[in-house]
Amino acid sequence: MVTLERKRLENDGYVVLEGLLDPKEDIAPLVDEYDVRLSNLSKQWFDEGTLSKDVSDLPFDQRLTQVAKETEGGYYQYLDISLPVSGITSDTPMHTGAEAFKLLRNEKLLDAVEKFIGPEIFCNPVQHTRIKPPVEALPEDKRWHAGIARTQWHQDLGVVTEEADESEMLTVWLPITESTEENGCLTVVPKSHKHGLDQHCIMADNGKTGIPDKDISGDQVPLPMKPGDVLFMTKYTQHGSLENLSDTIRWSLDLRYNPIGDATGRPWFPGFIARSLEKPETELHDHDKWAERWWQTRDEIVKTGIPSFRRWDPNDPLCA
What is the pTM of this model? Predict the structure, then answer.
């Protein structure tokens, strides 16, 4: 059965479900977990001399901004829920907390995902925590680090391998703090998914992969959202984000789900079965096993490396 939500997604390329999650019940536990994580990191970095003063007792947003300034964005990977796509070492950090895992398989979230891709749901390992400090907190040459500045226009299929071309990959984006035009909310181009995959380029000024601004296909619609709202997009929907011009952080998660059996586009990273009506015994409910898979993956990659992939030619004349 084709749901109303799926029809809207197929027509517009995106759907926002307002108030899908409860900020206190579903989001606050993750915020508390990150508060402890950042407090511990702050104390450690102060003791090591990385930070000039102990900021562990500051409110989370102020603490993150101060840490961002003094580490020049070096905090990012310690808070992300995935490994980076390159430069992985035996010391590469990430966050594999219990509340992060709990949100990945939140029942309300999976109920919504089911409306778009059906009940056999795989949690795709392309997943990130984005905590953007005010853009002025960082030197200009550091602002592109891990999307701390505005996020370049792109389609999510454009930043994974070709194996995902036939996958029904669904992007799920949700704000942890209020997301506004001032602090860098997400922006989409309605109906841009109907063009298929657009040419992406390696940007000369920042090395990021994206669609040049001149090639964006239509009206750009900013999407201010509140904690509890959830955005769903197709893998072809053109989107990016604005700069954070406010005086506080903008925090969000971007996640991916696809039907079980579809390729993820990052085969070297560990996804898991989040829901299966056909084989419920295959679902992963154990946080420790999820975390262990990520740490084991890091160790394996250090030994064997990530398979080389280059979807886009940096010398493509279309990008000149």
Answer: 0.95
